[in-house]
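Bumping with the actual sequence this time:
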Amino acid sequence: MPAPYSPDFRKKVLNSYMKNGSLRKTAEKFEVSFGFVQSLTARYKAEKTIEPKPHQSGNPPKVRPEHHPFLKKLIEKENDLSLEEICTRFEDKFSVKISVTAMHESLKRLGISRKKKLSRSEKEPGYNRVDRIFFRTHTARPGTGCLHR
């Protein structure tokens, strides 16, 4: 999104409009849109300011700061919950329906990571992750003769 026009430029456009009284001629002279000149003059007449309006953000997040302690405790207590389960518990507690994607983004913003349960082979004594990765990347897929990649 382009930056708003500078206050000096806005002042020049407004002064020019005040002198000649034509929105269209002012827009052509400064090579700006008719709508810009129209909204600038309307804002000046209504609010006596030529400053640009502040940027308005989108919808407020559904996970608000007062929800953060609940999420932190929930993940701390049950770190193997799926995102769907977290969303369901959140909805049960706060009566706010939230999508899986929104929950994921909220947890990421809070710096909360969800630890996954170890697979059965990883729980076994003597498990070596490096050997497993090597084995996965250097063995053929069954029936294809292709390496895992």
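The tokens above came from a reply further down the thread. Residues 131-135 have pLDDT under 50 and may be disordered.
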